[in-house]
Amino acid sequence: MKTGVRSQKLEVGGWELGVRNRKLAAQVALLAGFAGAVSAQEGKTNAPTVLAPVVVTATRTEEPVDKTAASVSVITRTAIDEQKFTTLADALASVPGLVVTRNGTPGQATSVFLRGTESNHTLLTVDGRRAPSMLAGGYDWGNIGLDNVERIEVVRSSSSSLYGGDAIGGVVNVITRTGRGLAKPEYETSFEGGSFNSFREALATRGAVGGFDYAVAGSQFDAAYPRDNNLYRNSNVRSSFGYEVGEQLYFDVKASYLQTDGGSPGALPGTAFDHLKRETVNVSPGMTLKVSDQWETRLYYTFENQFQPSSDFGDLNRLSVASHMVDWQNNVKLTDQWKLTAGVLWQDQHVERTTTSIFGGGINNGLQDLGGYVQSQWSPLERLTVINSVRFDAYSDYQSATTWRQGLSYRLPTTETLLFGNVARSVAPPTAQDLYFFGNPNLKPERALSWELGVEQPLWQDRLALSTTWFQHQYHDFIQLDGFGVPQNVSEATSEGVEIGVKFKPCDKFTANASYTYLTTTDDTQGIRLLRRPRHLITLDSVWKPVEKLTLSAGANWVVERQDVTFPPPTFTATNVPIEDYLLLRAAAAYQFNPHVQVWVRGDNLLDQKYEILKGYPALRLGAYAGVKVTF
């Protein structure tokens, strides 16, 4: 890192840590010592224990969120319905520290930047099963619908020691609905229409017959967005089928189909002929076996094929990405206070691209990875949890890598203050696009050292909660595009900041969540900002139920101080330029006529703000929509 004085360095596990990270080591040691000191008071108080929500993503096992030593956000089905989110990207925009960017209108290329990390540094899983990435890494965030989704868990802490290199920033786990345990079948149909000639129809059903359970949902969305060549269509089907052989053995199959088709107006002259169609088929059978009261094993296989024929500048491009994965996880309870999670993941991705472009760019290559991990969760005291995990990956095209994470969480007696911290090492190989698609075969894997320290304080009998988290990602060989659009390794880069959160629920009829994130991201080699990461991000979501049948919701995203890249004449050299701030307001009102019929209206960009999320890509102006849902 560039500083005005010579920095002192300390070597830890092969990493040279600067002064700031020496302070981190001291703070983590202080946190551990403080937790150990105050734990002696545990038996001296009768103060009630705060009940934290149970999550599965942070540790790959069901744990109260305050015992994961990580930052976790949960978006429930109730929140999805109240806020009227329709895509995964819409829902993720409400998460603290997470910025969603898009090439203009819905359906275009969409990225997520979690605490300043790259979009391909946030892993997507569905029901704990790893989702295969696209050619450029990352996922089709903007086209993933929320049909048949029960909840979304977002781990905002580095998780590579459990999930692999592309979880440097964290993990988004989409948990789908099942019919398991339902006494009678459920059916749901809905319709919404509104601005930009948009129409969305959806059907869903779930239920159980004996040991067999099922859940199927499908939707169709069509829109005609402003600008030429900007029609959009999305067809989505998601299903879950399961069979319970007995109390010890359960089989299931998750399957989905997604097709998107639309024009790409782009940001450059001549792109009016660009057109992109994408089809994705995913099938994932699995088995969960309870071998004994102490040992549970899970085995999943996932196959996914992404097919993408597109027209760019009049050239035909056909892309196919085929992925196979086998994931075996074991959960072993050694004692009431100590359990281990261990597993193996094998994945194979083959990319094939043909094109009529005179510039070439054909691809026929594959990448493989065999990784194994083990995690220890130890609670020597009721309020203290120590987490240690390590992972080893053998890559087909790169040297093997070892990653790890050490975490600690402690809830103080009497005040119920939650303290947590963790430090993690991650290694992420280049994506197939980085290597083969006008890429750079000489790229090195990215390496990162990440840490965070957090505190959360419940107040007013849990009606109010305040939180602060300090985090940093320190990169070596960070991958960025140069002025010619070719990926290159940057020797050092840093992403660091502070998150402040407020949760307020004064009564059952009103809730509000707000967050502020201050973020600094720099290419330390050149001393410049990393692109598309705002310095300030403020999010707000609120729900009010003035009467039993009426639900009012509102949300805001305020994005301040960003930079993007342009290529100004006459040199057309890549140049970082600031782009305008924007404040987006949305609101919805839903009325439940009876247990079976609900109607709603909602509005996006209520200030009718003219803005660009990315330079040269105009976003949508004010939009108004109305819908109806029938359940029986």
Task: Reconstruct the topology from this structure.
Layout: E1 10-12, E2 15-17, H1 19-38, E3 54-55, E4 63-64, E5 72-76, H2 77-83, H3 88-92, E6 98-102, E7 110-114, E8 122-126, E9 129-130, E10 149-155, H4 160-163, E11 170-176, E12 186-194, E13 198-209, E14 212-224, E15 231-244, E16 249-263, E17 275-290, E18 295-312, E19 315-333, E20 338-355, E21 363-381, E22 384-395, E23 401-411, E24 418-428, H5 432-436, E25 446-459, E26 464-481, E27 487-507, E28 510-523, E29 528-529, E30 536-547, E31 550-560, E32 562-566, E33 575-579, E34 582-594, E35 597-604, E36 612-614, E37 617-618, E38 623-631
Parallel strand pairs: 8-11
Antiparallel strand pairs: 1-2, 3-4, 5-10, 6-7, 8-9, 10-11, 12-13, 12-38, 13-14, 14-15, 15-16, 16-17, 17-18, 18-19, 19-20, 20-21, 21-22, 22-23, 23-24, 24-25, 25-26, 26-27, 27-28, 28-29, 28-30, 30-31, 31-34, 32-33, 34-35, 35-38, 36-37
Structure characterization notes:
With 632 residues, the chain is mainly beta. The protein has one domain: Beta Barrel (Maltoporin, Chain A). It has five helices and 38 strands. The strands form seven sheets. It has a 22-stranded antiparallel beta barrel. Strand 20 and strand 21 form a beta hairpin. It is globular. The N terminus is likely disordered.
> With helices defined by DSSP (H or I, 4 residues minimum), what is the helix count?
5
CATH superfamily: TonB-dependent receptor, beta-barrel domain
Structural domains: how many? 1
Radius of gyration: 24 Å
| Number of DSSP strand runs | 38
Structural class: mainly beta
Strand content: over 45%
Poorly predicted segments: 1-48
- Dominant shape: globular
Q: Main beta sheet, described?
A: 22 strands, antiparallel, barrel
CATH fold name, please?
Maltoporin, Chain A
How helical, in percent, are the residues? under 10%
Termini gap? 60 Å
CATH class: Mainly Beta
The CATH architecture would be: Beta Barrel
Mean pLDDT across the residues is: 89
